[in-house]
Amino acid sequence: IFKTRIVSKYPLNGVLPDSIGNLSTSMEMFDLSLSEIRVMVLGSIVVFMLRRQRNRNVPTQAESFPATTPARISYIEIERATQGFDQCNLLGSGGFGSVYKGMFENGMTLAIKVFNLQIKGAFKSFDIECEVLRNLRHRNLAKVISSCTNMDFKALLLEYMPNVSLEKWLHSDDHFLDIIQRLDIMVDVASALEHLYHGYATVVVHSDLKPSNVLLDERLVGHVSDFGLAKLLGEGESIAHTKTLATLAYIAPGRVSTSCDVYSYGIMLMESFTRKRPYDEMFQENLSMRSWVYNSIHVSPEDIIDVTLIEQEETDFTKKLHFLSSILELALNCTADFPSERLNMKSVLTNIEKIKHEFLH
């Protein structure tokens, strides 16, 4: 969930030339002693090392993204594109920094994720996102365009999503998603997660799946984003939970594994079709979102489904109710208390695509 915050300008240690250049020296023939030659060679090495050290402080495009980066993007260009990181361009703030809309002089519009390096774990978060996004390509994963980094400033430049996020469309009065649009987005998310687990040599567990991290493009296609808390696991591996900045209401109890993302997906599936957040005031210690859905699904499912999706006066009310109930049943199967009882993501994707097919036909 984004929190409004003004982010001050970031320091810059000065922009240096892109390359040192080649030092060419024309010399007349001299009869130099061996000691003089040694001094000259040593001096050249010292100059080279000093200039190389200075160049390390230049914010520059990360070498991680050579295939997708059209040109080098500097800190100065980012500052101009965001109007000095002005609040009017602030798209939102998360655990490790803020995201700005940047409009560049060449007409390109990007989302710029600026990491707050004062927050513990921000450096690691940046490195993890670079590791994940440079190795994974999928239509439903956020696409990184470039990066800008030095010791004082780190930012990822991502494809801009004009429809912001699933969070905005679910919980804003001036936005509306119909049944199929919501289902399509959840199919997109399931497809992205399935790729995270099987599209790369190392399994990637997102660890912070929630509606605000599902970005929507101009066609309302879902793109999973924000891998700052992601975990890279070997096959069949799990690790203990650490204290993170993830939203607790979406996190499964137990060790971090792919089944934790399945749990988060199930909670998000419930939220998408009930329009209730898992941390709403109605959910206290004795009543969680899952227990609320579980207690109602076979008794009066119409009481928990988003009222904007179904009306009893509709001619296809029964068909819609059955369809929506099957979605919530799938969500319950994703959020079982024991990880071994939850569906795997391949099964989730197969099931939700089957539900969509049956509803349309």
Question: What does it look like?
Answer:
This protein has 361 residues and is an alpha+beta fold. The chain has helices at 34-55, 75-81, 122-135, 166-171, 179-198, 258-274, 289-296, 317-334, 345-360; strands at 90-93, 97-103, 109-115, 144-149, 154-159, 203-205, 214-216, 222-224, 231-233. The chain folds into 2 domains: 75-159, Phosphorylase Kinase, domain 1 (2-Layer Sandwich), CATH 3.30.200.20; 166-360, Transferase(Phosphotransferase), domain 1 (Orthogonal Bundle), CATH 1.10.510. It has 9 helices and 9 strands. It has a 5-stranded antiparallel beta sheet with strand order 1-2-3-5-4, with helices on both faces. Strands 6-9 form a two-stranded antiparallel ribbon. Strands 7-8 form a two-stranded antiparallel sheet. α5 (179-198) packs antiparallel against α9, α6 runs antiparallel to α8 (317-334) and α8 runs antiparallel to α9 (345-360). It is globular, with a radius of gyration of 25 Å. It is an enzyme of class 2 (transferase). GO terms for molecular function: ATP binding; protein serine/threonine kinase activity. It is a single-pass membrane protein. Keywords: ATP-binding, Cell membrane, Glycoprotein, Kinase, Leucine-rich repeat, Membrane, Nucleotide-binding, Phosphoprotein, Receptor, Repeat, Serine/threonine-protein kinase, Signal, Transferase, Transmembrane, Transmembrane helix.
